[in-house]
Specification:
single chain, mainly alpha, 6 helices, about 85% helix, globular
């Protein structure tokens, strides 16, 4: 049982702040993505959607800058040597989740998939599950640096939400392929549903690695 409430940071306040900011970027990306997809269902490729998509792009760019700065500081200043490799891998995995939010939002803008209204409710449900999954990943990762006992709690939520998103995705895909839509539209929606669900898969993969790091810290 993990009982540690011990920070990895001692004389690395600036690094601590940057890693915290990266966690914030995941939560920001999830919130804006959820809002953007809701706008898309109502307005398709509107100016409002375009603005939100660009906002996610800015978040992704800021996250990339943070990741590179964190990596540079870990190497150039020889910070946290015992866990440096784990932290480097962790920040790269966190950045991948943000990248996926950006890629999917941009793909909606470019390809403009036509989603029948009867699927709106379940699609919103899927997006909500995926975004909450990413948010809990950010909280699990944040806890890794300060309170190992909380990592498992947030990780369990990630696993549960990823499983729920899988079920929602399967239900949506079944409905799409059982419908009378043209095959091309079915295939396009299938691709989009997979890419949205992939965000939760990335979060789950990140948590898998995170729990390994927790075991290493607890030894």
């Amino acid at each position: 049982m993990f009982s540690t409430k011990f920070s990895l940071f001692s004389h690395t306040k600036e690094l601590e702040q940057k890693i915290d900011m990266l966690h914030d970027k995941i939560i920001e990306a999830a919130m804006v993505f959820k809002k953007a997809t809701d706008v898309y269902l109502k307005e398709k490729r509107s100016q409002t959607y375009r603005k939100l998509s660009k906002e996610i792009k800015i978040i992704e760019h800021d996250a990339d800058t943070l990741r590179r700065d964190i990596e540079n500081r870990l190497y150039s200043q020889n910070l946290i040597p015992d866990f440096r490799g784990n932290i480097l891998e962790l920040v790269e995995n966190l950045d991948k989740v943000i990248n996926e939010f950006d890629e999917v939002a941009h793909k909606f803008y470019i390809e403009q998939p036509e989603i029948p209204e009867k699927y709106y409710e379940r699609f919103r449900e899927l997006v909500g599950q995926v975004c909450e999954c990413a948010e809990n990943l950010a909280m699990a990762s944040r806890a890794f640096f300060y309170d190992l006992s909380a990592v498992r709690d947030y990780s369990k939520k990630v696993y549960w939400l990823e499983h729920e998103s899988d079920k929602t995705t399967a239900s949506l895909k079944e409905g799409v392929f059982d419908s009378d839509m043209e095959l091309a539209q079915k295939l396009q929606l299938n691709s989009f549903l997979t890419e949205v669900a992939d965000i939760a898969d990335l979060a789950e993969n990140c948590v898998d690695q995170l729990l390994i790091y927790v075991i290493k810290r607890d030894i």
